[in-house]
Amino acid sequence: MDTSKKAESAHLLDDLESIRQLLGDDATHSPLLTDTVHREGQIPLLFDMVGTRPASTHPEDVNEDDIPTLTPDVQAAPVEQLQPPQQAPQAQTQPNPDALLHMDSELRAAAQLIMQDVIDDFAPHIETEIKRRLEARMERLIAAAKGS
Asked: Where are the stretches annotated Disordered (predicted)?
């Protein structure tokens, strides 16, 4: 029971440290804000056209009447030509600086809230530990002073 609290404390302290580094004014920024996405390496989306249609695979010398069918021949209604799907507008390659600043401020505000929650959760534990260590240190100093 005690070891799980220590492991949880260590994990939360690591989270707190990573949040502190994120909010620091040093040159390192979150990779979400500095990484760029290159269009060529991405998986195509559903509305993206992928490649071209393959050429007809039927050889020209095949007679369609020679191919056996399982259903009787029925006159089919004329097939309407489908229009090719329109390309979706390409996303901007460079994100809007105002949107990045807004996202940055939102991320920082969320990180501040998380950090404050962690501090609020651990402040009583930290205070108790500091008191315990100070009392132990004070007892050692008093014992050393009496022994001298």
From this structure: 52-98
